[in-house]
Amino acid sequence: MRGFLGACRYFTTVAVVPRLFLVGFGVVVTVNTAASLVRAGSAADTLSPLLTLQMFAAASGFDLPARRGHYDLLLTSAVTRWQVALAHGVVSALPGLLAWTVAEVVLVWQGLSGSGTSGTAIAFLSVSATAWATAVPTSRAKASVAWVVLMTGPPLVRPLLPTAFVGRPLVHPDASGVALAAALWLALGVTTASLAVRHIVRSGFPLEAAQ
Amino acid sequence: MRPLLVNAESVRARYGAREVLSGVTFDLRGGQSLGVVGPAGSGKTTLLRLLAGLLPVSGGLLRIGGRAPHLAPLRTRLGYFAGDFSLPGSVRADAWGRLATSTSLTREHRPLRTLSRGARQLLGLRATLSRDHLDLILLDEAWDALDADGAAWLSSTLLAKRDHGAGIVLASERHHDLAQVCDLFLLLVHQRGTVVRAHDLNPSGPVSAAQLDAAVETLRQRTTPPEAGGAQLVEAGGVQEVQSGLCADSSVRPPPTQPG
According to the 3-state scheme, what is the secondary structure of chain B? Predict the structure, then answer.
């Protein structure tokens, strides 16, 4: 546990999620929550922009900074690679998950959310896991391009994207299609996150300059 | 006799299909310091990252404190620094110092990228060497960018660590500084390593940079690149080497030495 917390502290210090994203989460939570309260809009209006920001924030990337030597101090300390991988995932996803929690609490308190929390939770967890995992062996830039391609894809695909589950209840007679898509995204998140952890545990990290 | 820290037997490393090191064999005990010498691109940095467990070996056997390198830091206290470029530029200098040692190494609050190269190098070295009870120290081009005071501090710190039982591996093209600190040398030429004792290079006193340069040059001239058919026998200037083919181990173990 001590090693895991030390690794979390390391990744917080080296700012795997740049401060600009933290500011972005703060602005989106404040502005959209206030707008929802004033206009009595839906939870999806507030939470969808947060989910979109999380796609890019959680995609922090591991290999690129590791190959530049930025993680040498941690990778050569008495912390297991498992702990390093989990800490990197947690620190990458945490700002977005915290922002969602804050927004959700405010919306539930105002009676604007509640029944749709199951869809929102699946959307945030699967997006966080998938975004982090796809960026681990690549980079934030490459993972972000993949998200943009998905988001701007054909209209037929959009109902299957996580943004479609936000604010929608999954346990509902009319929600079987959404529930199936959510289950697939959750499975994708778990699978890609497992592969990313395995990648960090087993991979070597040659210095870019030495190859 | 101090414990065996590094046991390397015919170690090989490759990046994809390209072989970078082949047949590197040496032992290192606590209290010994090994200088890795060779021209640019000879595999010095790769060897250090293998020892640090940051790269997998592609052949041969490598043990650090009796364990596979990637598991070694759990038992062997390792200090590794690749150079100032490996520090994340956006981190504030004081925060980096606290990360490494939990004590304040500097009051400088600026991001690392805004410091001079020498200041970054010195902070990186201090962060690495300030960790308590290091068993194995691995430094790459450690004297780079340091001023005279910084270089003197580094040399004296390394000698003190060695005398306290740490094993040290230093890769550098600054042979003058290496010669002051190291009692063993690993000459990397044409992807192969040859171990030679300082005493063999100069039985009458400390090794000079010129003697190190000459030893490397001798090896370079008398061995052939692997693609040209394999390494040849060298027996000159105290440099010991065995004849080998393309894939054979071309290194020798250093003779038994007294612990430092």
Answer: CCCEEEEEEEEEEEECCEEEEEEEEEEEECCCEEEEECCCCCCHHHHHHHHCCCCCCCEEEEEECCECCCCHHHCCCEEEECCHHHCCCCCEHHHHHHHHHCCCCCCCCCEHHHCCHHHHHHHHHHHHHCCCCCCEEEEECCCCCCCHHHHHHHHHHHHHHHHCCCEEEEECCCHHHHHHHCCEEEEEECCEEEEEEHHHHCCCCCCCHHHHHHHHHHHHHHCCCHHHCCCCCCEECCEECCCCCCCCCCCCCCCCCCCC
pTM for this structure? 0.85
- How many A/B residue pairs have CB atoms within 8 Å? 74
Task: Please choose, from the candidates A14, A97, A108, A92, the residue with its C-alpha nearest in 3D space to the C-alpha of residue A58.
Answer: A92
Q: Mention every residue, 6+ apart, whose C-beta is less than 8 A from residue A105.
A: none
Confidence of residue A80 (pLDDT cuts 50, 70, 90): very high
Q: Which residue has the tokens 């609490």?
A: A105
- Rounded to an integer, the average pLDDT of A6-25 is 94
Any B CB within 8 A of A211 CB: yes
Please state the ipTM of this predicted complex: 0.83
Spatial contact of B26 and B13, defined as CB atoms under 8 Å apart: no
Pairing of strands B59-64, B78-81: unpaired
Confidence band, pLDDT 50/70/90 cuts, at residue B222: confident
CB contact under 8 A, B45 and A9: no
Distance CA A71, CA B91 (A): 12
Distance CA B95, CA B110 (A): 10
Query: Considering Cα of B105, then A84, then A79, then A207, what sign does the dihedral take?
Result: negative
C-alpha radius of gyration, chain B, whole number = 18
Nearest to A73 among B70, B95, B99 (CB): B99
**Residues 6 or more apart in contact with residue A181 via CB below 8 angstroms:** A159, A160, A164, A165
CB B237 within 8 A of CB B187: no
Q: Touching check for A2 and chain B: CB below 8 Å? A: no
Q: How far apart are CA A96 and CA A142, in angstroms?
A: 20
Nearest to B253 by CA among B197, B205, B207, B202: B197
